[in-house]
Hints:
Elements: H1 2-10, E1 25-28, E2 36-41, E3 47-52, H2 57-71, E4 83-96, E5 99-112, E6 118-131, H3 138-159, H4 161-167
Parallel strand pairs: 1-4, 2-4
Antiparallel strand pairs: 2-3, 4-5, 5-6
Amino acid sequence: MLLPLLIAACAAPPPSPPAVIGLPQVLDRRRAEPNWLGEVRGTDGSFRQTLTSRYPIARLVQQRFTAGLEKRGELALDTPPTLGLRLEIHRFEVIAVTDLSALADIDLVLYDLASGRQRDRQRLLDTEAARIDAAKPIAAQAQTLALGFLATITQNALDAPSFDRALHPPAMAALTPD
């Protein structure tokens, strides 16, 4: 009779429910218009053309992170979220001179909604370059580069070991007698 109670008392605790993230909050801190994507400049540095996006950059960042979380099953769809994701865009642009250069500086913070405690913080600093195809409009090439670049940044952030540990903390080790 005592054996079943002893076995039940020593069993590992049930796993905690999976962490579920609410819709990402994005703050655009760039000193630019919301749709500003970058510029085309001459080799002498002179301004030639403003590059814009069809949608605000903050919206594109939010959509990409939302899609990434949903694909991984980490987005709160049918249950209340337990975690929040905050993204601050400090820089996101494409500059065209002799080639296309994409640059990003985004802060990512994953936090517990109940306590406000930060679980993960990443500084997403990255660059990517691409050759300009003279047969295609530069603006279209810049937008294509920007979307691909944003997809890469998102995947790298969500694949980061620190993000995974924050979402799935290791279970507490069961107490064992010495």
